[in-house]
Known about the structure:
Largest sheet: none
Helix content: over 70%
Shape: globular
Number of helices: 27
Distance between the termini: 76 Å
Order of helices and strands: HHHHHHHHHHHHHHHHHHHHHHHHHHH
Radius of gyration: 24 Å
Structural class: mainly alpha
Amino acid sequence: MDTALNFGIWSILPPLLTIALALIFKDVILALATGILSGALLIHHGNIFSSIGFFADKIAESLADGWNIRIFLFCAALGGLVSLLNKTGSVRSFGQWAAGKLKSRRGTLLFTFVFGILIFIDDYFNSLAIGTAMRPVCDRFKISRAKLAYILDSTAAPVCIIAPISSWVVIIMSYSREAKGFSELGISELDLFIRLIPYNFYVFLTFFMILALIFIGRDFGPMRRAEERAQNGEGLYDRDTFGENRVPEESPVSQRARPMDMMIPFIILIASAIASFPITTWKIAAEKSGSTLLESFHQIGIRQAFCDTDASYALMYSIVFTMIFVIAYFLIRRLLKLREITDSLISGAQSMVPVLIILTFAWTIGSIIKNSPADGGVGLADYLANMVRSSHFPFWLLPLSVFGFSCIIAFSTGTSWGTMAIMISIVLPIAVAGGKELGLSHSELLNAVCFTLSATIGGAIFGDHTSPISDTTILSATGAGCPCLEHVETQMPYAASVAGSAALGYLCGSFFNMNIYIGGATALGTLILLLIFFIYLRPKAKRNKTH
């Protein structure tokens, strides 16, 4: 085996092949598996038998890691929890309760948005649960199915990506942790995730867009036509163009369910996770020093304990505690029988299988990209870092570039998780190497890394948000009872306006030393101008032209 630091230009083959196959076949699992195998062939100089053995060993090695397997089990258990909540009928009960409280069209839209913000545990559950609960209420106020689908889609992944307790936080932490250069940042995985939140321009602009449209009470583009059709009683969706759309039949659920039966499990999960983060730090410190938990509590402040925690332990503790509580609670409330609970847990875990495969393959290809040939990798991170140091590529163009690449990959493949799996392992070492080459201080380097990584994540969210083959796009349309292609058509101008504004924000902010304030102000100002143009100025121009 080669003992050099990298394979030179050949080290770019695994991620390049992964991206190409993902774009061609629209199958991230196939693309990631092929990327891993190509890395194995490179490391073993084309020996197919050694490469296949290496392929199997690396995947097993990824799952043998304690941190990884706890995150793996957390995601599987979270799927089970979501399945339990769906089965009880508590979501429908919550929707019926909301229907009795809402008295206006604007109030219904605003409640749907807030509801989406609150259900931040999982994007799939968000789209289906809120759609099921709010669709009858929105129909009563003649809100188009396309408008409901847009709000569902815009409060699914965008909300989860900034929630410190969700299936998404573990993904970002996992991908970042495996990337070369992460250890040089000197912070924990959770600390990095929290630092990324304010840099997510695309997410916050999406929320601003929704609220602006709700309070202004106007729309533009295909959404305006969809809303006018619904308000005029011509149909809640476009049957003539997109055909008849059947709302999925709901399975029988317990009539004993109450609105709080949906909220209590979320409150327990959030509360137990928040408590587990610092407790985990104190517990690990006590075990290492041979002291007691109380002594560790006095030695380590709560803020430091929260940021320095091992999130895999904390999340695992919280989901186990929550599952035990929820199962006991549903049995006591007689919402589900023991057999139904078992079946729901199994079906919920099965629904997470594609995600778990992507996660495992992402860990594997991340280690191959990061490690040197001596450690079972191709040394791409080292090669890219050296290339950045020796090239004259403007560092301030990096955020915009990765935002664009992430948009294209996610739109073409329909998955933000797969896009981030590919891009973060490449982008993070480039950002670290580029920042060090410029002589940035530690705080400036952290700022540059956060700016660049958030652009990567934002692009992945936009591509997934607008792709017609994205699972969240399809599920949002399904939850709203809207034809998928109508949802894509009506949502695209809104998401594109937000993405264009975010891209300009990343460009201007990075030009001024990765300044988040300049970037954020530019992005927000651009979106406001676009809204003024599309809602107020463009309609007048069309009327003048007609006359």
